[in-house]
Amino acid sequence: MRKLLICMLLSFCFLSQNPLYAGEAPNIIFPAGGTSSGDKQNLLVYELIYRYTFYQLFLQESHLEKGFIISNHGENFADLVQYLEQGFSPKLAQQIVSYVTAYQPEIGKQAIIPKEGLPLITKEDLPFIRWDIEEEGIIFTRTYQIDLPDCSSTIDYKIYTRFTQGGLKIYKLELEENKNLY
């Protein structure tokens, strides 16, 4: 049942998400007098959304070559990892590329394999994201509600981040189910 709910959630996330804002950093200007706590939270969440644009563009900006989907951001494993490292830690970028692509010897390139991937975080998620500052960095949580005839469930999508010289980087992702039977 748990796997079914997670598959349903992931399918829902991909089918219902709107595209992100154009793949560029959000232009947020704060008043000269400082920022309110709401502005600071929005700034952090927009930074998270910006980092997710690299994953979305990695998949969306692609072309077909001999029936294979090739990302415009690289043709080999190393180039694709390097592109995703703009938003993700090196280890997580490698895991993502390993999961969503496969080397195709017929064309000598990594190809995107159509399947479920990560839920996308977009500006439409802004009101639904909460965050906590921990010793290791900031943990963002996006909670999804799933209502089925025989049960109700929430799934927390946890995004673990750290600040680096290159800005905020996502280094770990988790799905945590909270089931409530009727």
TrEMBL record:
Keywords: Signal. It comes from the Bacteria. Residues 1-22 form the signal peptide. This is DUF3828 domain-containing protein.
